[in-house]
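Per your request, structure below.
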């Protein structure tokens, strides 16, 4: 098993996902910064299942989601450098290790994009609600379905590919 090279060059999928991650982080940061001055001093920070505000905070809390996004991207990027440490849905052998490691790295790259799409959309919704304007996802259930699909579709696709490439 020691003959497996863990540090393979990035695939095209990983390169595109990296570009999208940086673009989404930049978009989230710029959007938040551009609206920050216009936000009220007290903004909604928590919502119940029906979408009604049940928690309030300082307008500085609008930076929590972009900060958490940067932290999460950094953490997932660091983890992605050590695919041999992951748990896999299939047994890793010398014959399939390289394929499985690359597939897992690609999965994490796509997952970072999916999470940032969800976080950026959530940030846009938070800014819109704080400014009392309508947003793309005013219907809470539509938003929940969007988040569920964006979160679980990459996982399902990864599991299908992982089992096919055992």
């Amino acid at each position: 098993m020691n003959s497996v090279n863990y540090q393979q060059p990035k695939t095209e999928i990983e390169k595109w996902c990296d570009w999208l991650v940086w673009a989404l982080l930049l978009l989230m940061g710029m959007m938040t910064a551009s609206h920050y001055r216009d936000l009220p001093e007290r903004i909604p920070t928590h919502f119940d299942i029906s979408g009604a505000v049940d928690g309030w905070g300082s307008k500085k809390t609008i930076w929590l989601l972009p900060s958490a996004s940067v932290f999460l991207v950094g953490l997932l990027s660091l983890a992605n450098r050590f695919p041999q440490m992951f748990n896999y849905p299939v047994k890793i052998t010398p014959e399939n290790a390289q394929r499985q490691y690359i597939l897992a790295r690609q999965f994490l790259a796509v997952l970072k994009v999916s999470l940032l799409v969800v976080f950026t959309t959530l940030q846009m919704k938070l800014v819109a609600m704080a400014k009392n304007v309508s947003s793309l996802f005013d219907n809470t259930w539509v938003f929940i379905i969007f988040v569920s699909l964006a979160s679980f579709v990459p996982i399902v696709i990864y599991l299908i590919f992982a089992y096919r490439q055992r």
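The helical segments are 12-36, 64-79, 97-130, 140-164.

Regards,
D.
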